[in-house]
Amino acid sequence: MISPVAGCWLGLVFGTVVLLSSQDVTPFMIFNPVATIGVLLLRGALTGYITGLTYNLLVNRSKTIAVLVAAAVCAIANTGLFVLGIYVFFFPVLEMWGIAGAADIASFVFLSMIGFNFLFEMGINVIVSPAIIRLIQYISEAKEQN
Q1: Cα 26–chain centre separation
Q2: How far apart are the first and last CA of the chain?
């Protein structure tokens, strides 16, 4: 079983990697470094926790379904928490970029900032899931033999 705590830890590592390696965070760091760090780390940790929790809730029914649903939930939670962080802490940044009005900002965020990323992440998660399922089965079989 993959625990929500393990997912939280992996999500925190993911958030740290994004924070340290992405040039996309620079405008946000300039505007509000504390919120930028908080959003990236908290988003990663919560996404991992939610994903691990989803897997644990479904694994007794079917490992395949648990992995596939957890993969989809991971992409949805990651994107949703990012959007929430953008709106709560960085709305003025979007306004400074010349995007006027809530409808324009929503369009910009969904089409420019997360649209492709969400679709790419969801696709990769679902494509890689069969390999994850097989790895989980292999580990489970190896534990049973010992």
Answers
A1: 19
A2: 17
DSSP state of 60: T
> Cβ of 68: how many Cβ atoms within 10 Å?
18
Rounded CA gap, 59 and 61, in Å?
Answer: 5
Token duo for residue 31: 């505007």
Instruction: Indicate the number of domains in the chain.
Output: 1
Q: Report pLDDT digits (tens) over 45-102.
A: 999 999 999 999 999 999 889 989 999 999 999 988 988 898 889 877 777 766 555 5
**CA gap 14, 12 in Å, rounded:** 5
Contacts of 78 (CB under 8 A, 6+ apart): 43, 44, 47, 121
What pLDDT band is residue 106 in, cutting at 50, 70 and 90? low
The residue segments making up the domain with residue 101 are 4-145
User: How many residues belong to the chain?
Assistant: 146
| CA 48 remoteness from chain centre | 7
State the residue for tokens 């691990």.
52
